């Protein structure tokens, strides 16, 4: 019976491979609490509608509660022969209470059962994600508040563009994680329908009450189409999409941390709690947590693509392919939680090197646009001409190897005679950020308004 190629592992031949490829208990035991909760609600509904007796219901519920205890105390023996969590629980129930256990599966299939268990799990995970995002947003708000006046270079193409404040930069992430949180809330709304009672795919001839089970399990209402109900994994795909987008946001800040903690930038310092040393280079302090957050994005995005690809060719209704949904979601959820928690810790603990940021903010002629705007405002130059004049001023500063503010007035006037010494007031980084008062701009007062508005929204 044992095959030459893989006989060592599969002593019992093909049947053992069937068991290994088919079983999901290794990962779907994570759904035990949802499975038991769902079965209790189902049995209660069956009895309320005269489909099983109250005695059977009571025995079933007592047995299920005992099983829950056995699982939680570690006494339960999961069996791969029994395939999945649903059959493991039902089989144990039969051992515990005998014949009545066989009535639990009336008007139900594993197809609606797994859809129920998994929905309940994803719903709880979404709520957890929502709370974790709120904490992360809170950490960014604290940093933004502390650094509403801290000037840093704003970048485009990672080239110094215009001065901004670190507070404003932090608030950009508040917006991103705020959108993630609102996507989580939307997903909970859409997911909030109970699948139980769809049965295998067609519904059931028993006089069940799906509104009753929906209410007992905390769903807004039952799903409306039994075929869709057992075929649908949109809620899992939505979870993964949200996780992927959120992970991309986390990864972008992680990347900035990696850049900013280099000695060359020196904008921020991570706490010892979120850095590691090198086994050979004593001077090193590495941003490993940020790098791992950046890397988690790869596997979370991978999970989304994996499940999209599993689902794309499936005819209605249930196919066993769909069993592959859970590991992707579990893995993405675990790693997203880790990434959000690590980022929350890093943000809360990091210290900002205000001097380095300010020095960098002024380098690279970052206030050249302010000079051009001054020429437009004070001298009435068309913006295009002001741009040209400013370009010559920058070229001069480059030649002199100095900042714009260090150019002598007579040299500026040689480029444009209208320039006065008032120009020195607008080419500082502080004046630059203070002037950007447009709604959503980097002016510290504007940023403080946004911080206050977000505090209310939390
Ligand atoms: N373990 C299965 C899953 O995760 C449960 C549903 C099985 N249904 C079936 N008809 N084989 O999808």
TrEMBL record:
State the Gene Ontology terms under molecular function. argininosuccinate lyase activity
Judged by the first EC level, this protein's enzyme class is lyase
- Describe which pathway this protein belongs to, using the record's wording: Amino-acid biosynthesis; L-arginine biosynthesis; L-arginine from L-ornithine and carbamoyl phosphate: step 3/3
Give UniProt keywords alphabetically: Amino-acid biosynthesis, Arginine biosynthesis, Cytoplasm, Lyase
Coiled coil where?
A: none
**Does the keyword field hold Nuclease?**
no
Q: Which reactions fall under this protein's catalytic activity? A: 2-(N(omega)-L-arginino)succinate = fumarate + L-arginine
What SUPFAM superfamilies does this protein map onto?
L-aspartase-like (SSF48557)
Keyword Amino-acid biosynthesis carried by entry: yes
Q: Where in the cell is it found?
A: Cytoplasm
Q: What is its EC number?
A: 4.3.2.1
Q: Which HAMAP family match?
A: Arg_succ_lyase
Looking up NCBIfam families in the UniProt record yields:
argH
Family according to the record:
Belongs to the lyase 1 family. Argininosuccinate lyase subfamily.
Q: What is this protein called?
A: Argininosuccinate lyase
Q: Which organism is it from?
A: Rhizobium alvei
């Amino acid at each position: 019976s044992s095959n030459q190629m893989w006989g060592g592992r599969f002593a019992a031949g093909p049947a053992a491979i069937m068991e290994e490829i088919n079983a999901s208990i290794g990962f779907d035991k994570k759904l035990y609490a949802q499975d038991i909760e769902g079965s209790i609600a189902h049995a209660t509904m069956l009895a309320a509608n005269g489909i099983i007796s109250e005695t059977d219901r009571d025995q079933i519920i007592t047995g299920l509660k005992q099983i829950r205890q056995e699982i939680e105390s570690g006494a339960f023996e999961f069996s791969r022969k029994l395939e999945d969590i649903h059959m493991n629980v039902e089989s144990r129930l039969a051992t515990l209470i005998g014949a009545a256990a066989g009535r639990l599966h009336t008007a139900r299939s594993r197809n609606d059962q797994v859809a129920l268990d998994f929905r309940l799990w994803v719903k709880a995970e979404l709520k957890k994600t929502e709370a974790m995002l709120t904490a992360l947003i809170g950490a960014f708000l604290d940093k933004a508040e502390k650094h509403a006046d801290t000037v840093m270079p704003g970048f485009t193409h990672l080239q110094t563009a215009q001065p901004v404040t670190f507070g404003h930069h932090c608030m950009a992430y508040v917006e991103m994680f705020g959108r993630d949180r609102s996507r989580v809330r939307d997903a909970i709304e859409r997911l909030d329908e109970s699948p139980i009672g769809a049965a295998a795919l067609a519904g059931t001839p028993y006089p069940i009450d799906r509104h009753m089970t929906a209410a007992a399990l905390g769903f807004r209402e039952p799903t409306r189409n039994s075929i869709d109900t057992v075929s649908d994994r949109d809620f899992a795909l939505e979870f993964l999409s949200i996780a992927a987008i959120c992970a991309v946001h986390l990864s972008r800040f992680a990347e900035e941390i990696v850049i900013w903690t280099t000695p060359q930038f020196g904008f921020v310092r991570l706490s010892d709690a979120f850095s590691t040393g090198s086994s050979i280079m004593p001077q090193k302090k590495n941003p490993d947590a940020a790098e791992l957050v950046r890397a988690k994005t790869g596997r979370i995005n991978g999970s989304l693509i994996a499940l999209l690809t599993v689902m794309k060719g499936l005819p209605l209704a249930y196919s066993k392919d769909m069993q592959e949904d859970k590991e992707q979601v579990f893995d993405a959820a675990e790693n997203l939680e880790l990434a959000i928690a690590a980022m929350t810790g890093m943000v809360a603990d990091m210290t900002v090197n205000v001097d380095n940021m300010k020095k960098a903010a002024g380098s690279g002629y970052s206030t050249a646009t302010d000079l051009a705007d001054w020429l437009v405002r004070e001298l009435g130059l068309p913006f295009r001409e002001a741009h040209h004049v400013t370009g010559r001023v920058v070229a001069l500063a480059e030649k002199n190897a100095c900042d714009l503010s260090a150019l002598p007035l007579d040299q500026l006037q040689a480029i444009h005679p209208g320039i006065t010494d008032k120009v020195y007031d607008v080419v500082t980084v502080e004046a630059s950020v203070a002037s950007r008062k447009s709604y959503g701009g980097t002016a510290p007062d504007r940023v403080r308004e946004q911080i206050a508005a977000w505090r209310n929204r939390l």
